[in-house]
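User: Modeling request: complex.
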Amino acid sequence: MKSITSKKAARALPTLRADVNKYTRGVCELVVGSDRFVGAAVLAVSAANRMGAGYVKAYTGEKAAGVLHIVQPSAVVLSTEEFFEEEHASTECRPRAVVAGCGMAGTDDDVRRVIDLLVLCKAPVLLDGGGLRALACEEGAAAARKRFVEGIPTVITPHGGEALRLMRFLEESAQDVPDPGRLKPQELALALARAFGVVCVLKGPDTFIATGDEESAGDVAAMLQGTPALAKAGTGDILAGMIGALLCQGADPFDACAAGTFLHARAGMLAAVDRSELCVTAEDVLDHVSAATAALERKIRKEGN
Ligand SMILES: NC(=O)C1=CN([C@@H]2O[C@H](COP(=O)(O)OP(=O)(O)OC[C@H]3O[C@@H](n4cnc5c(N)ncnc54)[C@H](OP(=O)(O)O)[C@@H]3O)[C@@H](O)[C@H]2O)[C@@H](O)CC1
Ligand SMILES: Nc1ncnc2c1ncn2[C@@H]1O[C@H](COP(=O)(O)OP(=O)(O)O)[C@@H](O)[C@H]1O
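Assistant: Request completed. Predicted assembly structure:
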C-alpha cells in the first residue's frame, strides 16, 4: 500500500494550455440533490466548479436549482429529467465526467435513474451518497460491470456505512465475498473495487483508494494524513465534486481519486489552521480548496516536476 504523496497528487493536476476553451477544459455534469438534501447538491457543484471544470452543469430539483442560481451563477442549472434527454459521451472537444448521487435520498426512483445513467453515459461516472444504492441491486451491479468490460471508468466514494451496505448486497446475491467484519479498510476497498469493476474511494479517518483493474490489482493508495476537522456533514459531497472535476479534465481515474483525496485533506488542514479544527465547516473546506491547490502547484514548481 502506498501513501498519496504530493508528487502522486500532482499527476492529475491539469496544466492549462493557452488555447483552451470552457469545453475543452472539461464538462462536469452533476445529477445531484433532492428536496430533502439541497445542501449536498450545492456543495458538490461548487466543488466541481472550484476544482477547474471548464463547464459545470447541475441537474437537480427545484429547491437546489433556486439556491444554485444564486450561489453558483456560473453553473448551468437544469432539471434532473433533462439529463436523460441529452447525450453524454466524452469527446476530444468536450471531455466530460458525470457525478451522481450526492444528496439523493436513495428512493426507488433515484435507483432507477442512476442505473439508466450508468447505461446511458459513455463517460466516466462517479457515484456517491444516495446514488450508491443503485449498485446494491442486480441490475445496477451488472450495469457497473458492463461499463468495466467496455473500459468506461466508474468511481464510487462510499463512507463506511455505504460500503457495508454494498458488501451486504454482494453477500445476499451469493457472491464469493469475504466477511466485511474481518476486513481491514484497505481490503474492503479492494473487495468492492473488484466486485463492481470500479475505482473505490473508501472514506473515513483514513481513506483508501483501490481499483478493480486486474493489471493494477492490489494497488491501493492511502491518505493517512487527514484531519478530524473533516468529520462534518457535507465534506464528502465536496470530495465527490472535486474528483468529478479532475475526471472531466482527463485525469486517469485512479490518479483523479488520489489527487482529489490529497487536496481535500490539505484543504481541511488549511481550514483548521485558519478557523481551528473545532470550528471548521464543510463550507470552510470548500473555501480552502484553492489554497491547497495553489500550495501543491508551488511545490511542484519548486521541485521541478
Ligand atoms: N447538507 C446536505 O444536504 C447533506 C446531505 N447529505 C446526503 O445525505 C444522503 C444520506 O447520506 P448519509 O451519509 O447522511 O446517510 P446514510 O447513507 O443513510 O448513511 C449513514 C449511516 O451509515 C452508517 N455509517 C457507518 N459508517 C459511517 C461513516 N464513516 N460515516 C457516516 N455514516 C456511517 C451510520 O449508521 P450507524 O453506524 O450509525 O448505524 C449512518 O446512520 C446522501 O445523499 C448524502 O449525500 C450528506 O452528505 C450530509 C449533508
Ligand atoms: N476523523 C476523520 N479524519 C479525517 N477525515 C475524516 C474523518 N472523518 C471523516 N473524514 C472525511 O470526511 C469526509 C466525510 O464524507 P461523508 O461521510 O461522505 O460525509 P457527507 O456524506 O456528510 O458529505 C470523507 O472525505 C472522510 O474521509
